[in-house]
Amino acid sequence: MKVGIVQMSSDTNKVKNIEKAIYNIDNLASEGCKLIILPEYVNFLGPSDLKKENSETVNGNLVKQISAKALQTGCYIHLGSFLEKEGSNIYNTSLVFDNCGQIISKYRKIHLFDVNVPGEIVHIESKVISAGKDIATFNIGDFVFGMATCYDLRFPELFRKLAERGANVFIVPSAFHLNTGRDHWEVLLRARAIENQSYVIASDQWKGIPEHICYGRSMAIDPWGIVISRASDQECNLVINLDDSLIIKARTFLPALKHRRQDLF
Question: Is 109 a catalytic residue?
Answer without folding.
Answer: yes
